[in-house]
Write a structure and sequence with these properties.
Number of strands: 9
Strand content: 15-25%
Strand order of the largest sheet: 3-2-1-4-5-6-9
CATH class: Alpha Beta
Distance between the termini: 42 Å
CATH topology: Rossmann fold
Structural class: alpha/beta
Largest sheet: 7 strands, parallel
Length: 231
C-alpha cells in the first residue's frame, strides 16, 4: 500500500457490496483496509485489488477493532457495511441471535465511531458512511431478529451526524431498498428480470458519492432502489 494515499476502512467485505465498495475506493485513489471474518476471501481480494490490505476481524470484537486501527492508522473514510441478520418472528428467533446482530450492526458502529472519528475531527474532515436497508425503517413480522438492530443503527448514525457534522465530519446512512444482485439471490429468484436487482457496483458508486459530497450539500439519509421498486 502507498502511504501517501488517503485511507478508507471498509467493514463487511464480502463478495457483493463490500468488495464493490473496496474496488470503488481503490479506483478513486485510496488505499483500503478490508475487514471481514473470512480471511481467505480477504486474502484473495488483496491479491486482486491494488492498494488494499486484508484485516480479518470480527467487528463485534472491540479489541480486534482497536488492533486493526493501530495497524492501519487513522482512516479518512469509514464504511460500515458489516451486517448481522436473521429471519423469523420474535418466537422463532433466539434472544442471543438478536443480541449478536445488535453487536454487529449497532455496537460495532458505536465503537468504530469512537475509534476513528476523533482524528477526523482534528483534521476537520472525514466521512463515516453506514449501509442499511428498509429494515431500518419498518419492522415486518419475520424481521424481529434483525430490524430492531438496523433501526437502532440508523438512529445512532443520526446522533453521530448531529454531533460530528458541525465539527467537519460527514456521517450518512444509505438505505438500500432492493435485492442485491448476488448469485444466491439469482438462485432464489430465478424468474426475476435483470432490472429487478441492484448491482453492488451501483451501491458502491453511491457510497463513494456520499463520502465526497461538498460540505455545503451533505446528505444524511439517502435511499437507492431500482426504478420500478414499489415504495
Amino acid at each position: 500500500m502507498t502511504d501517501t494515499k488517503p485511507l478508507a476502512l471498509v467493514t463487511g467485505v464480502g463478495p457483493g457490496t463490500g468488495a464493490a465498495v473496496v474496488r470503488r475506493f481503490a479506483e478513486g485513489g485510496y488505499r483500503v483496509a478490508m475487514l471481514a471474518r473470512n480471511a481467505e476471501r480477504l486474502a484473495a481480494l488483496e491479491k486482486e485489488i491494488p492498494d488494499t490490505v486484508a484485516m480479518p476481524c470480527d467487528v463485534a470484537d472491540v479489541a480486534a477493532l482497536e488492533g486493526v486501527i493501530a495497524k492501519v492508522g487513522a482512516p479518512n473514510i469509514v464504511v460500515h457495511n458489516a451486517v448481522g441478520g436473521a429471519f423469523g418472528t420474535f418466537m422463532q428467533v433466539e434472544p442471543q441471535v438478536l443480541q449478536r446482530n445488535f453487536e454487529t450492526n449497532t455496537m460495532a458502529l458505536f465503537h468504530l465511531a469512537r475509534l476513528t472519528t476523533p482524528a477526523m475531527v482534528v483534521a476537520g474532515q472525514g466521512s463515516l458512511i453506514v449501509t442499511g436497508n428498509t429494515s431500518a425503517q419498518r419492522g415486518k413480522a419475520a424481521f424481529a431478529g434483525f430490524a430492531p438492530t438496523k433501526a437502532a443503527q440508523r438512529i445512532l448514525a443520526e446522533s453521530l451526524a448531529r454531533d460530528l457534522g458541525p465539527k467537519g465530519v460527514h456521517v450518512a446512512y444509505l438505505i438500500i431498498d432492493a435485492v442485491i444482485d448476488l448469485p444466491w439471490q439469482r438462485e432464489r429468484l430465478p424468474n426475476a428480470p435483470d432490472d429487478f436487482f441492484i448491482s453492488p457496483k451501483s451501491i458502491a458508486a453511491e457510497v463513494f458519492h456520499l463520502a465526497h459530497q461538498p460540505k455545503d450539500a451533505w446528505s444524511f439519509l439517502s435511499e437507492i432502489r431500482p426504478f420500478h421498486e414499489p415504495w
